[in-house]
Amino acid sequence: MCDDEKDNKLSLIGLSLAELQEVCRDEGLPSYAAKQMMEWLYARRVASIDEMTNLSKAARERLSARFVTGINPPVEAVSSSDGTVKYLFAVKGRSRTEEAGQPAKTVASSFVEAVYIPDGERATLCISSQVGCKMHCAFCMTGRQGWHGNLSAGDILNQVLAVPGSESLTNVVLMGMGEPMDNLDAVLKALSLMTSTPGMGWSPRRITVSTVGIKGTLERFIRETECHLAISLHAPTPEVRSSLMPAERIFSMTQMTDLLRRYDWSGQRRLSFEYILFRGVNDAPSDARRLVRALDGLQCRVNLIRFHRIPDTALDGTDMDGMIRFRDYLTQHGIFTTIRASRGEDVMAACGMLSTAKNRKF
Ligand code: SF4
Description:
Bound molecules: iron/sulfur cluster
Strand order of the largest sheet: 3-4-5-6-9-10-11-12-13-14
CATH topology of the largest domain: TIM Barrel
Number of domains: 2
Structural class: alpha/beta
Radius of gyration: 21 Å
Strand content: 15-25%
Distance between the termini: 25 Å
Oligomer: single chain
Shape: elongated
Mean pLDDT: 91
CATH class of the largest domain: Alpha Beta
Order of helices and strands: EHHHEEEEEEHEHEHEHEHHEHEHEH
Largest sheet: 10 strands, mixed
């Protein structure tokens, strides 16, 4: 439960049915009012308690004295010429676990990004799970921010519920700022509220969670949700991966693929591997051959991604001809492979670019 910035009232979004029943008990409301509140919060997305019109006026007044819905619209939006919109949501600093060796610090306010991506009949929202990130991937602007705290389940859900066009979303991907497995309790709670009834009632097949792979929490995620899983791989071998992603040194891609092979991915739940192609680093024909070997025996797909340049890095993206050659090799060797369309190039599309610029102003 998090404090509302303006008046220190508590937010209702992010609360489960059991927690809302507890609120009802505390406020002297009938228990069934909790289900009604779930409907108002997660299906109708009302901005104020006063709009919960099937609660009595007295009940709304009692609730309003202590609570707000917690649905807070984005503070900034930047639109791309291709229809992609990058939103910034303000989140308040809150208690956090210290990063090893770093003193705990509290920030007054920070910003996280969500990206709305319309595509024909589909409208996908890419959301964040943390303020900054501990993983320090070499190609990522968010990684350079360092970690500044975890989002609550309410903060994660707020991006979905308060974004303009929320009702028309068809898919959500947790591929924005932060590593979801490093904030798994809040992520699982948000996913549960998105996929339960009462709640948003979505099919878990509409949600994909992306991770570098963290030992222990990855297994918990696989067991406790049915949402799709996307692994940020970006390399064909542990050596190349550890040069790009420090997380490889803690839980290697070999250990991770061994673990993934213990689960069945032949059903509707999808396992995919994300692979940004970097010129001269991981895009040679020999890399494609090694990648096929690394994924041997896994029912999966590979998404090839064009690198969105960030400042002060020697890394460069592979051109489209190179990407097509890489894709064709994987496809010929039985791996369903796509080249992800590049969207929002003109709105600081690389993850963390816009929030980094905004945070610097504060
Ligand atoms: S790519 Fe993802 S896991 Fe890596 S630093 Fe960026 S946000 Fe963190």
